[in-house]
Amino acid sequence: MVSAGILEEDGLGHNVQNTKFNIYACACALVASIISIIFGYDTGVMSGAMIFIKEELKISETQVEILAGIINLWALIGSLLAGRTSDYIGRRYTIVVAAIIFLLGSVLMGYSPNYAVLFVGRCTAGVGVGFALMIAPVYSAEISSPSSRGFLTSLPHLCISIGILIGYVANYFFGKLALKLGWRLMLGVAAIPSLALAFGVLKMPESPRWLVLQGRLGEAKKILVKVSNSKEEAETRFQEIKIAAGIDENCQDEVVKLPENKNRGEGVWKELIVRPTPTVRRMLLAVVGIHFFQHATGIEAVILYGPRIFKKAGVTRKDKLLLATVGVGVTKTIFILVGTFLVDRAGRRRLLQISVGGMILALSLLGFCLTMVHLKGELLWALCLSIVSTYTFVAFFDTGLGPIAWVYSSEIFPLKLRAQGASIGVAVNRITNAAVSMSFISIYHAITIGGAFFMFAGIAVVAWLFFFFFLPETKGKSLEEMEKLFSKNTNPTATTHSQS
C-alpha cells in the first residue's frame, strides 16, 4: 500500500485514487473533541486557580497537591467505566454522558463554599475526564479514513491544548477580580460548554464500527459513505469491518443478530488481561508504555505548576507569573497544530523519536538552569534560558508524544477490544498524571526543582529507547490491518517501509 493518501489498495488488488479530505468526518471529530477543550480548560485554569484557592481557603501544600492530582485518580475510574459504557450504549451517547458529568463537576467547583465541596467537584469532574479521554480519540479513529486518521485522532489532543490556553487566559483576566469571586468563576464557567455539547453531540452520527458490532449493517454502511473519501473506499472499509466483527463479508442484510458477547463487550477483559494472544499482549504493552511515558516525562509538572517553576527561576510578580504561563499555552497550541498536520505525513515512529529527543535536551537544560539559580541566586541568563527551555520542552512534546499517544492507542486494538483496550491506556495515563501532579512539590523539595527535571530527562531517555524497540509504524494502515502489523514476527525498526 502506498500510504500518504495518494493511492490505496481496495482489498481486491485494485488501486483506488484517494486525494480528498472528508470534511464531514473532520466536522464529526471536531464536535467529539469539544469535550477535550473542556478538560483542557479545567487543567489550565487550575494552575492559576490554586494560587487564589490556597490564599482564601488557607490550605496546606499537601492539600494543594491532592486537589491538583485527585482529578486523575477519579479519571482512572471514569476511563475504565467508559470503555464498557461505550460498548454498551455507543460512542456518541458516551460523549453525552461525559459532558453531563463535567457539567455537574463544574457547577460544584464554581459553587464551592469550602475545601470539601471543591474536592467533591474535582472528583466528579475527574470521572468526566476519564470518559472524555477515552471516547473522543476512539470515536475519531473509528470514523476516519487511513489516510487522515492520524490528523483526526490528534484533534482531541489539539483541543486539550486549546482548552489549556483558554484556561491560562481566563486565569489572567479572572485573577483581577475579587478573591472570592475570581477562582470560582475560573472553575465554574466550564459548565456552559458542557451543556451545549450534551445537546450538540446528538446531531453527530454513531461510529459505523460500533453499529456493525450491533448488527446494524444498513446504518453503518450509510454513515461510511458519508465519512469516506469515495464510494469504493466506503465499500472496502465496510467489508473489512464486517470480517473483523465475524460477519460474512457477502452478507447483504440490513440487520443481523449477533451474540451478546460480541456486541456488548462481554469477555473483553479476559482477552486483554487474563489470556491475551502474543499479538494482543504486544499491543497492550505498546499502549501502556506510550501512556506511561507521556506523563512520566514531566509535562504535567510544567502545565500544572508552571507559575511555581517560573517563580523558582526568578519571576516574582503574580501577574507576570500568569502571563509567562500563558506563553506555555500559546506554545502548546501552536506546536500541537504542527504535530497534527505532520502525523500522517512523517509517521508515528519518526515524530516520536524527534519529539522525545528534543524533550531530553530541553529538560536537561531546564534542570541545569534551575540548579544554577538554586545554588547562586537570581541569574538573568538562567531565568531567560529557563523560560526558553520550558517552552522548547512543551513544543517538542506537543509535536510528537502529546498527540501520538492518543492516536496510537485508539488505532491499534482489534475492533472488539478497541474501546476497553483504549480505556486501559487512559487509566495508565491518569495514574501517571496523578503520580506526577500529586508528588511534584514533594519531589522538588526533596531533590531540588532542578534535580526533578534532571530526573524527567532520564525517564525521557528510557522512553526514547522503548519507542524505538517496541512501537511499529502504523501510518497508512487500516484499523483492520493492525493485528498483522503487531504479529509476533514484526520487527518495529523495519516497518517504516517506503511511503510516498
UniProtKB/TrEMBL annotation:
Keywords: Membrane, Sugar transport, Symport, Transmembrane, Transmembrane helix, Transport. It comes from the Eukaryota. It is a multi-pass membrane protein. One of its GO terms (cellular component) is membrane. The chain crosses the membrane at residues 21-42, 62-81, 93-111, 117-139, 151-175, 181-202, 283-306, 321-342, 354-373, 379-406, 427-447, 453-472. Residues 28-475 form the Major facilitator superfamily (MFS) profile domain. One of its GO terms (molecular function) is symporter activity. SUPFAM superfamilies: MFS general substrate transporter. It is found in: Membrane. Its main location: membrane. PROSITE patterns: MFS, SUGAR_TRANSPORT_1. This is Polyol transporter like. Belongs to the major facilitator superfamily. Sugar transporter (TC 2.A.1.1) family. It holds the Pfam family Sugar_tr. It comes from Quillaja saponaria (Soap bark tree).
